Amino acid sequence: MIHQHIFAAPKPGMSEKNFQDYWLNLHARRYAIKIPQISKYRLNLRLSCSIDPTPIWSGCAEIWLRNDVEQVASLQTPEFLQGARLDEPNWAAFWLSAVLDCETERLLDGAVPDGAVKLIVMSKRDLSNDLQAYRMLRRADLKERAASVPGLLRVDMAFARDGLYAVGEARFDEVAHFWFASVDAAENAFATPQRDVMLPDAATSGLNPAQVFPMLVQPHW
User: Fold this and answer.
1) What DSSP designation does 38 have?
2) What sign has the CA pseudo-torsion 192, 189, 160, 98?
3) In the chain, where does DSSP find H-type helix?
4) Which pLDDT does position 29 carry in this prediction?
5) Among 70, 178, 186, 202, who pairs with 209 as Cys (CB 3.0-4.6 Å)?
6) For the residues 141-153, what does the mean pLDDT come to?
7) What are 167-187's pLDDT values in tens digits?
8) Mean pLDDT of the chain
9) CA 21 – CA 41 distance, rounded (Å)
10) Triad 163, 165, 168: Cα angle to 5°
11) pLDDT score of 145 more than 90
């Protein structure tokens, strides 16, 4: 299963509120979810929080596709070419969009209540670190320490697909998903020493500190 992440920002002159409303109530419903190859579609809209004071993106769509063949087919459908693709300039600064195809694994499997929020963190490693060794380090660290974060319910780690490294480097190496029951629960965790589980120190995690982008979001299926 391909787990695609699409990060997007408002077009110039459009407020974040109007951008999010358009994406949720018009673009996603009228165009995106009608692409027949999409198995699941979740839209995560940015919430204000203490660790994201100057946001680049205002939301992230998660799209699940069964395989490479269906992904290619989805980009050739009328629903994409004459629908979602044509609509994009109406609301998004498409030149700021970031897309990452991933394979995802669950590292902490707690129950998530209705109305839960999550911290999404997109990151790139320091390129002096071997990719496979870096992934092993990240998995091991999260499995060992995630349960120590106050209020953290679930952790999903989405690593960039291997094919993105066939020629050069993937733009990002991972998208981590950290689930909390509420904004207050997330902010409480951000104020503890255990926040470094979600926003780790570059010296111990292998991340490039200039390429770590957190965003607290409200998910919508």
Assistant:
1) -
2) negative
3) 16-22, 68-74, 78-79, 85-87, 131-145, 183-190, 202-205
4) 96
5) 202
6) 95
7) 999 999 999 999 999 999 999
8) 95
9) 16
10) 145
11) yes
> What letter does residue 10 receive in the DSSP assignment?
B
72 phi and psi, to 5 degrees?
A: -60, -45
Residue 200: pLDDT band (50, 70, 90) is confident
d(CA 40, CA 216): 21
Residues near 185 by beta carbon (within 8 Å), at least 6 away in sequence? 150, 151
Q: Please give the full DSSP string across 71-103, using - where no structure is assigned.
A: HHHHTTSHHIIIIIHHHGGGTB-GGG-EEEEEE
Alpha-carbon torsion angle 137, 141, 144, 145, nearest 10? 180
Task: Give Cα 29 distance to the centre of its chain.
Answer: 20
3-state class of 184 per DSSP? helix
Given a cut of 90, whether residue 204 has pLDDT beyond it is no
18-27 pLDDT, tens digit per residue, is 999 999 999 9
Place of tokens 């700021």: 96
β-bridge mates for residue 45, sequence order: 59, 218
Type of residue at 188? N
Please give the backbone phi and psi of residue 133, each rounded to the nearest 5 degrees, phi first. -65, -40
Q: Where residue 53 falls among pLDDT bands split at 50, 70, 90?
A: confident
Q: Do the beta carbons of residue 202 and residue 128 sit within 8 Å?
A: no
Q: For the chain, what percentages of helix, strand and coil (3-state, to nearest 5) are there?
A: 35, 35, 30
90's CB contacts (< 8 A; 6+ apart) are 11, 22, 27
